[in-house]
Amino acid sequence: MESQYKVCEVKLTYKSKVKASEREKILSAEDAYKILLSVFDSETIQYKEFFKVILMNKANKVLGICPISEGGLNETSADIRIIMQAAILGNASAIILAHNHPSGNIQPSMQDDQVTKRVKEIAKLIGINLLDHLIITDETYYSYSENGRI
Questions:
Q1: What are the backbone angles phi and psi of residue 124, rounded to the nearest 5°?
Q2: Average pLDDT, the chain
């Protein structure tokens, strides 16, 4: 008997091209910043905002870095559902949020604080640890963790 319902099958997979022994380990905000500088485009970091999330396993080894959004001169979208989707599909146990401020001002905005708080709350509900939120420029960074705000 043929089904009268037509539905799509969803298949979730995780493929790593990096051996576990070769993954970078993040022990500090500075480690995360150095890794982030390698994935932010040096030609656009001062031009427009980008939001990314570092996905890590329980040993704080980097599983991957997922681009979340690309914005304008002074803002970009940080859709919490997309952030959490990336964390879940990336099989992350912990995450670090990151975005740049093209202005060079590394102080968090009220919106940065709100996103950090919401992601922390939601991640905790599903067993994912938010370790930090970095605001970066090509010269320096601000770490919520180092400033006691996570």
A1: -60, -40
A2: 92
Is the model's pLDDT at 11 over the cut of 80? no
Alpha-carbon distances of 53 from 1, 6, 11, 115, 123, rounded to whole Å = 46, 35, 23, 13, 13
3-state helix, strand, coil in the chain (%, to 5): 25, 25, 50
Contacts of 142 (CB under 8 A, 6+ apart): 106, 107, 108, 134, 135, 136
- Tens of pLDDT, residues 40-92: 988 888 889 999 999 999 999 999 999 999 988 888 999 999 999 999 999 99
Integer Cα distance of 83 and 76 in angstroms: 13
Three-state DSSP class for 127? coil
Q: Are 100 and 37 in contact (CB under 8 A)?
A: no
CA distance 33 to 58: 19
Vertex 148: Cα angle to 147 and 150 (nearest 5): 115
pLDDT attached to residue 62: 97
